[in-house]
Amino acid sequence: MTAAAMSLDFALPPELEAREPAELRGAGRDDVRMLVSHRDTGEIEHAHFLDLPRFLEAGDLLVLNTTATLPAALRAQRANGEEIALHYSTSLPGGLAVLEPRRVSVATGEVLTLPGGARTTFLAPYRDSKRLWIAQLELGMPLLDFLRQHGRPITYSYIKSAFPLDAYQTVYARDAGSAEMPSAGRPFTIPMLANLRRRGVSVARVVLHAGVASLENPEKPYEECLEVPLRTAELVRETKWNKKRVVAVGTTVVRALESSVDGDGFVVASRGWTDLVITPERRLRVIDGLLTGFHGPRATHWAMLEAIAGRRQLERAYGAALSERYLWHEFGDLHLILP
What we know:
Strand order of the largest sheet: 2-1-17-16-14-3-12-13-15
Largest sheet: 9 strands, mixed
Shape: globular
CATH topology of the largest domain: QueA-like
CATH superfamily of the largest domain: QueA-like
Number of domains: 2
CATH class of the largest domain: Alpha Beta
Helix content: 10-25%
CATH architecture of the largest domain: 3-Layer(aba) Sandwich
Strand content: 25-35%
């Protein structure tokens, strides 16, 4: 069963789409609400992100994705002079990349002119995607330098203003590579991380470089580049041995950790690519809890969310979030799912 088939069917009122960063609406990036969903009891609590330490215990492990967001949105020009939007998604071996020409059809062999005299050639559709293409980039400089010079953050139609790249970074970002921000970690501040450590909550890191999502065409997640450091694998095993909880900050962390399990069920250090798609039929082996944002009715992550929370609890939680007017998307509120 696909993620799209499992998606809850609901209408998201436009006024619940967060259109600006929390610090422009309130006291700071940590000034967001947090719905807490207890999977085993069915209980739902309404809280604030600043209450997070109250829901975690000494010995729990919080795992963060330290990927940094790239300015991955570009302008490109076709041979007929038409200007289109182009999103960089993922780098491939051999100087190739996965690109998304936004809302236009392109053909194999078509060449686009990019800023600064660069160009790209579309070679073939990427896997079974109707929107992503494998392309050859001819930039005249390293990709990261080119994006920093000519790109801007990827945004969607609900964002009405331009915000700097810093607005799309977590405070702990350090490994450049994501086309889109792993937004569940955005509300964290350095004082919050210090507070959690003082309370005995351990913090570990993984890297998973997120490609472009699509609000128009639900598709199953495709391959993404990951790294699970040795120290993180050790902390996960220690946490599980002590019967404490491993809580992922974002669906990218779930994918990274669940992709790094050996035949005996232990998390191991790893680096490479993952094509893992988590569904209720695939039992979770690592993750006990998840801090995430609220996902749209056609989001690609519904199968994973159902595997973590269960269908019935998701229906309760999203019903409560709609009724209590929580905010959606990368600048919105949070959903903490616990056993």
